[in-house]
Predict the 3D structure of the following.
Amino acid sequence: MTEDVLQEIVLAIPLPALVVDQTERIIAANTDATSLLGQKIVGRHFATILRQPQVLDAIEQALTSKSAKKTRHLSNDGAQDTAYEVECRYLNGVGAASGGAVMVTFQDTTHLEHASQMRRDFVANVSHELRTPLTALMGFIETLRGPAREDPAARDRFLKIMADEANRMNRLVGDLLSLNRVESEERVRPKQQLELTGLLQSTINSLRPLAEDAGVVLSLDVTNGPLSITGDGDQLRQVLTNLIENGIKYGASGGSVTVRVLPADRDPAMRGPAVRIQVIDKGPGIDAVHLPRLTERFYRADSHRSRQLGGTGLGLAIVKHIVNRHRGRLRVESELGKGSVFTVILPR
Ligand code: ADP
């Protein structure tokens, strides 16, 4: 095969690719490879271009053993690390005096490594979140079997704490299952026709006892009549419940939570007909540093307060996925000492 034909074949490979022959020089490379490794690499000794020892070893071994080798290459453009899986495949009858050559391709695996890191972090977080109440339960079981055995007052107190801890675990498992379901449906567009004002009203009614217990006045501020949208009724109810519950839990000191509905024929965020649902509280607000990360799983602006109030740290992650599924947007504005406004923008 002539070097021109080889170069044409390498150019057609949809990954950074180059060929090294028995003279240990690069005899062909495509533009993805030159973007990654630098211009004018053809004709150079491969060790002057690829400086990472594991990559050099893999190419040398592939050349001498006439077989395939695999390794990793890490690059850094100053801003971030990129990980590549490097495949070295032996090519018979190619290169100087047709003594054989090795095709080297680089596949960017950063996103896979990122996903697997996220999975590991998630498992570590879930285990930690479950272990805390579990440790408390195990401790109280021991106490009830031993020192508190004959003490009815202590027994009742401990059983109450155990029930609270078991409820915490139950809420966590419930939220994990919700998150899982919502994530798996995220690409399926909801099709139900819904009347939004009625849905808001009934959600608010179901949360009124919680608001009353917390001393919060919960109100719905709508100027429009019935409002029809396409969506998933159960999921939109969950969005509203999570946001209103947060308003009541964290914003109780402000004394009020208001749900405001603002329909528009042309919403700038949606570039078309949409409705904005705002959940407004007058509580302590959230420091601006936390706002970008608030919808991450298990992220809490105030961990102590969240745990004290029985939070799982998953409520806003669930909200974000449901809003995404509806091709909507979630916006959070907050000012310390003044309260927070969570806005869900849904296309109509
Ligand atoms: P949690 O189960 O902890 O409430 P969420 O995902 O619902 O988890 O919320 C994440 C964090 O955002 C909470 O832990 C809390 O610190 C903060 N937060 C959410 N809503 C409000 C609010 N209305 N006012 C102040 N902080 C809030």
Remarks:
- The longest strand covers residues 256-267.
